[in-house]
């Protein structure tokens, strides 16, 4: 569980550094490349998935579809950073894996599908989900805010980073 927690913390710390670099008007600006959604909306989406999972400790069920959608997270970058820090604190307090039920809507009907899961599996999913949305945030910045400097690994999967390192080291050896 330790490595999974470290991966989540690393992603969230990269996200925090990114958020600190933004002005609130950049964070909330509707972007054409995002079909008029904003960096803040994508960040809210990331953070609310973590909030859903952390709340699941109390009820042993997680349903990312039924998250709160707190507008303040998407419109106030300082508040979003506070929420992110709270998530980091809560993640650090998790000590053991537990079973839970993942509920989701897979169609147009009103019935949720339920599958067995556990905290570790959901945290692995959240790493991938977070990296995916960080890649989207990166695209938005490249197109709309090219002055914002991003870490070269921001929004890049851990496996891709390792692969690039492997390729580079083998090319250097030639």
Order of helices and strands: HHHEHHEEHH
Assembly status: single chain
Q: How many DSSP E strands?
A: 3
What general form does the structure show?
Answer: globular
What is the total number of structural domains?
1
- The percentage of residues in β strands lies in 5-15%
* Radius of gyration, in angstroms, nearest whole number: 17 Å
Mean pLDDT: 92
Give, in spatial order, the strands making up the sheet with the most strands. Answer: 1-2-3
CATH fold description: Four Helix Bundle (Hemerythrin (Met), subunit A)
Second-tier CATH architecture: Up-down Bundle
* Separation, N- and C-terminal Cα atoms: 38 Å
The CATH class assignment is Mainly Alpha
3D architecture notes:
The chain has 174 residues and is mostly helical. It has one domain (2-173): Four Helix Bundle (Hemerythrin (Met), subunit A), CATH 1.20.120. Helices cover 63% and strands 8% of the residues. It has helices at 2-20, 24-28, 39-59, 71-75, 77-93, 119-144, 158-173; strands at residues 61-62, 99-104, 113-118. The chain has a three-stranded mixed β-sheet. Helix 1 (2-20) runs parallel beside helix 6 (119-144) and helix 3 runs antiparallel to helix 6. The longest helix has 26 residues, at 119-144. The chain starts with a helix and ends with a helix. The model has no long low-confidence stretch (mean pLDDT 92).
């Amino acid at each position: 569980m330790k490595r999974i927690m470290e991966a989540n913390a690393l992603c969230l710390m990269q996200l925090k550094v990114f958020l600190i670099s933004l002005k609130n008007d950049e964070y909330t600006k509707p972007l054409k490349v995002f079909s008029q959604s904003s960096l803040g909306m994508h960040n809210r989406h990331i953070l609310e998935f973590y909030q859903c999972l952390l709340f699941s400790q109390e009820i042993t069920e997680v349903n990312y579809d039924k998250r709160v959608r707190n507008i303040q997270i998407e419109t106030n970058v300082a508040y979003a950073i506070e929420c992110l820090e709270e998530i980091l604190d809560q993640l650090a307090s998790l000590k053991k894996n537990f079973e839970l039920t993942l509920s989701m809507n897979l169609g147009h009907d009103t019935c949720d599908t339920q599958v067995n899961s556990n905290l570790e599996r959901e945290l692995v999913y959240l790493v991938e989900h977070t990296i995916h949305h960080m890649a989207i945030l990166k695209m938005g910045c490249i197109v709309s805010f090219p002055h914002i400097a991003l870490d070269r690994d921001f929004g890049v999967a851990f496996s891709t980073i390792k692969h690039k390192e492997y390729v580079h080291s083998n090319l250097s050896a030639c």
